[in-house]
Amino acid sequence: MEEEGVVGVLQRYRRDRRVLLSFILSGSLIKKVVMPPGAVSLDDVDLDQVSVDHVLNCAKKGEMLDLSEAIREYHDSTLFPNMNKAGPADEFFLVTDPISSGSPPRREPPLLHSIMPSPILPSLATPETLDSAEDENLLNLSKSQSLNSTQVQELTINDIDDFDDDEDLEEVDSQRYSRRVLNDAADLELGLPSFATGIMDDDLRETAYEILLASAGASGGLIVPVKEKKKDKKSRLMRKLGRSKGEHVATQNQQTSGLVSLLETMRVQMEITEAMDVRTRIGLLNAMVGKVGKRMDALLIPLELLCCISRTEFSDKKSYIKWQKRQLNVMEEGLINHPAVGFGESGRKASELRVLLAKIEESEMLTPSAGELQRTECLRCLRDVATPLAERPARGDLTGEICHWADGYHLNVRLYEKLLLSVFDILDEGKLAEEVEEILELLKSTWRILGITETIHYTCYAWVLFRQFVLTGERGLLQHSIEQLKKIPLKEQRGSQERLHLKSLLGRVESENGVQEMTFLQSFLLPIQKWTDKHLGDYHHHYTEATAMMESVLVAAMVVRRLLCEEPEMAMYTGPVADTEQIESYVLSSIKSAYVRIIKDVETMSDVTHEHPLASLAEQTKKLLKKDATMYMPILSQRHPNATAVSASLIHKLFGIKLKPFLDSVEHLTEDTVAVFPAANSLEQYVIEVIMSNCNEETGEMYCKKLNLYKIETISGTLVLRWVNSQLGRILSWVERAIEQERWVPVSPQQRHGSSIVEVYRIVEETVDQFFALKVPMRSSELSSLLRGIDNAFQVYARSVVNQLAKKEDVIPPVPILTRYSKEGGIKALVKKELRDPRQPDVKRSTDYSALTTPTVCVQLNTLYYAISQLNKLEDSIWERWTRKNYHDKSIRRPTEENLRSSTQKETFDGSRKDINAAINRVCEFTGTKIIFWDLRESFIDNLYKPTVSQCRFETLIDQLDLVLNQLCDIIVEQLRDRVVTGLLQASLDGLLRVILDGGPSRIFTLADAKLLEEDVEVLKEFFISGGDGLPRGGVENQVAGVRQVIKLLGYETRELIEDLKSASELELQGGRSKLGADTKTLLRILCHRGDSEASQFLKKHYRIPKSAT
Q1: CB 3.0–4.6 Å: which of 435, 675, 823, 1037 could bond 615 by disulfide?
Q2: CB atoms within 10 A of CB 971
Q3: φ and ψ at 154, to 5 degrees?
Q4: Cα separations (Å) of 352 from 204, 330, 384?
């Protein structure tokens, strides 16, 4: 394939060189052009043998150009290495390897005294001084004069036309540079045997034109044009390229029509010189002399041309030898090398034919007379041998042929290919010529000679168009090629005779798997299939933007595939059978190739970006899938509805292979896991989204079930739980440390809570921030674990605050021993065991209780309130961030998970709220109890109503209570004021009941005291109501109602109380209450503090309560 590409470049170089030389010689750059002997115009000169350096030197110096000298210099220069004269000294390009040429000479080079004239390159020697007369004579002397030449033909400036105007020059210049850079078409090598004789593309092109002329001659359209002056024969393009600024051109448009005009167009398109055209036409016309009734297309064209064209019709011998060699090679290839039918008895003649061809070639090495004699004799024998070979039966009547001088179809289709190449614009290879329809119609005349049928024509034409599309990248040519492919009839659409004919067209081609036999369709269509499969098998690389081009290539691939599947050898083909399988193979191949390129790019960029390779790979793979789904899948899905799912599934699998070792090795949350997990999970979610959005629900679920899910959420969730547990342990340790260091001093006058709760919230918020900073996928269970841990931390904090308080029973002093009223003193107490309370105050506890001052307890309450008030903000912040984190999560969640999430959100910190509220209630209760029973113990519990109620009323305690209440309200937060004051009210009422019912032996109440006590209760109530600025009246009334019920009992007579106590004892056994609505304990304590003998006698008789010591 590489050799074919090199040959193509060389042929293009040769054509461009000829065009440039023709331009220089036809223009005004050369003062005078002297033709070589035998040449009339430039068309008779082989420009390949003209030295460009010699022409340029003449143009620079303004000298006359002798083409004979230029040809001689070209041949002489081939004996020496190439030189570069661009530098200060000549540079030689050595043919030998400089390494193997030995070391450089050690001796110095000889001195250069003078430059001697060179007999080979006289233009490089220093010219001797000449006088003007000699110089003029030398200039007038033609260097082309020889013994055999009698007249010198010259081409002067006057013989060259000018341009008509400058606009035409601009137009031609724009067309001249419109030749595009062609692509490499090495992959489109035809599956045909190579030519043993080494026939080149130029040889095939010239032979194809000769066949075209013969076909036209059979239709009577072969006319030899009359030779005119050069300026009348030149094409319009060449006339414009040879414009002289000082002259005008008289444009002469020769109006020709029909076949003559079309043949002239074909000659230009096929780059055939006028000299060869005229020579061939004359040769074919001479061949028909004496052949009455025989068509020109029935002749053995190479043989006839060899016989009818002589050496004298060529400008030089080398051109003639080259032309003759081509004709001999064509005959050998056509008649011997690839026969469609065995020689049989003609086998001996085939051997004789080879001998004769060799002798004709050898005749050029003999003397002119001997050589001409041998050539003439060999041509006569050649006609006798070649004609039977060309006329032996071959393909029957299908093509209507009589003379099948090239019965092996390989040469014929290659010649027909060269004819088909003439349909392209010579100035723009990506466009069809305007006369394309007329050209194709003309080419039909060659079908008889070349054995072409409609199937062969459509196949060859489709291949030519497709190859030109590959070279130029022009999508219009691809569309034309598809149209021709669709015209190729399927097997059932062909006639039986055509099927047999196509079946006989076989060729043996050497391939990687050895010698392979290929049918005609396989030879032309397999290269197209190979090319399309290669490009569609990596469509991400070949069609980065031009998706319309990809769509057309896909159509061509499917049409070619349909045609090839009918070939008998393709029946054993083990590749994809259905179109969907072929599309799937394209997708799989292209995705794998693109993925390999992505891996290489990621490996290259990972050192620069310092990003984990797997994270970068996941991002780039997601981009690949997105591009594939949006750009390419709309095209491929037309032939494979689930192509997108196939692509997404493969991408998921390929990345999973790279990801698995990483997942197996991860044990803790690290920077790598935080970088890789989100990217991998995002890719997987996008894969699922693409599959579900491009397939119906049932198909999408089927493809999703086949996915080997990465389970990022599960693995990540385990790691997150480990991290959460370690952080929760850290939080608990900070809570304990904060409580231990707390001194219950307000943070500031405005922030009257302790610093410990601020520290706890700080560590909690830091943990929450770190949790949401983990950009790894996680489920609601990980969040629930974190929330439970935070909830537990606040519960621990609340319990720690409560644990610093004393029990209520420890603050309240022991209840005195019950005694009965007695006027005597010193009576020994003999009481029932169950009525005594032996507890005594603890000195150490007293010290601890004294440390819990009212301001300290108020700060604790404020701290607990701050804790519960900030929970709402913390909770709202957590759920808002969680919702935002999972906003783009497209994963399909099960209903149970959603229910778990909603229930967790509703009960986030309920445990903390419950415990903190309970702690606040406990502290409020403790505050009131401590103030009444500990701080005001002496004045309230010990001395109130002593010695009588009238002598020590409750009003004496109002100032102390007011002082305490003001102290509470100054420190406590507004939201907790009523709760603390209510606790103080309750404690005050409990203290009052304690004084009334368990006041000890020193307190005696009479019937008259009931009214005074009622007044004291009213004073207490109004104090806490405080004219509407305190507690709500209704709440205070409810609190006071129980005390009033006890005081009301004090107003009853002793006998009534005794009777009620007796009945209450019996009713309590039955589950009822007494008539007065009091229980036995209350009635008993009221009687104990009643100052009359009746009560004392009753208590002594029934309860054995001792007398009080007064």
Answers
A1: 675
A2: 17
A3: -120, 150
A4: 25, 16, 10
